[in-house]
Predict the structure of Alpha/beta hydrolase.
Amino acid sequence: MKKLGTLLLLLAIIWAAPVHAQQDSLRNLDINLENYEYPFPVSYLSFDTQGERLKMAYMDIEPDKPNGRNIMLLHGKNFNGAYWEQTARALSALGFRVIMPDQIGFGKSSKPLHFQYSFHELAAHTREILDTLGINKTIVLGHSMGGMLATRFTLMYPERIEKLVLVNPLGLEDYKLKVPYQPIDKWYLTELKSNVTSIKNYQLTSYYDGKWKENYTRWANLLAGWTLNKEYPRIAWNAALTYDMIYTQPVCYEFGKIAAPTLLIIGQRDRSAVGKNLAPESLRATLGNFPELGKATQARIKGSKLVPLDNIGHLPHIEDFDRFFTALKPFIIP
C-alpha cells in the first residue's frame, strides 16, 4: 500500500510538469487571457466609464495566519498580476492579505475600444477594489509603470496609505524633456510589429543585461501569445495608449507631496526609459539612470529610504527574488 502511494505521488508529479510547461509555452492567448490560468482565484469588479461597461480583474489572497495587515501589488506595463506569484506567496506566509489587480487594458481586465487612459482614473478604479473588499488602509507596492500608479494613488488617497514601496518605478524623470513627442498612432504601429523574437530581445537587453534564464521565458511568452491572436490589434492599441499616458503624465514633480513612509528598491543596472530609442543620440545615455534617479527621488520624498541592489536590472522580484524580499521585509515588518 505504501509503495502504491509513492507511485501515485510520482505519477502526479510527472503529470503536473507537462501541464505547467504547456501553461507557460508560447501559444495563442485570447484578449482577456481566459485561456491562461492565474496562480490564484480571480475576481472581477464591473463598472461603467467613458461610455463602456468594463471589468477589472484582481486576485485577493487571504493568509492562513492573518497579521491584520494587507498589501496591494501594482504591476508594470509589460506584465499583469500573475508575475507577483512568488511575492504574494512570501507575503501571505508572513500573514499579509495580498491584493493584485490587473489594470484596465492589462491581463484579464477589459481592453476598451475607446478609453482615455490616465493614472488618475486607474487609481480611482483601484480604490474601488479596496472599497469592495472593505479595506480602508493598505501598503501599496508598485513596480515600473505600477510605481507611477502607486505614486498617483498615494497622492490622491493619502488617508488610505500605510506605506509606499516603489520598485524600479518609471516616471522618476520627465521623458518629455528628452524624448520627442510621438503620436499615439506611431506607438500603435510599433506595437503591431511585436512578436516573440522582438519581445524576448527587448526583455533580454532592457531587463536582464543580455543574460537569459529559463524562468524569464514564461513572461515573454505571456506577451507574445497575444501577438498570435486575431484580436491583437486591439491589445496593441491599448498598449499605445498606455505609452502615451506614461509619457504625458509625469509624477516626478510631485514626489515632495508624499507624506507616507516610503521605500525605494532600485536595481542599479536598470536603464529603462520610455521612448529612449527615439531620443537624440546625445541625450539617450542620460535617460533611465536609475542609480542617480533613485538618489534624487529619495531626496524629494521626505524621510524615504533607498535600498540599491547592485547588478540587478528592471525586475528585482523576478531576477533575484531573495535580494528583493530581503530589502522589502524589514520595511513592512519593522
Q: What stands out?
A: The chain is about 40% helix and 15% strand. The first strand starts at residue 42 and ends at 49. Residues 37-332 form a domain with the Rossmann fold fold (CATH 3.40.50.1820).
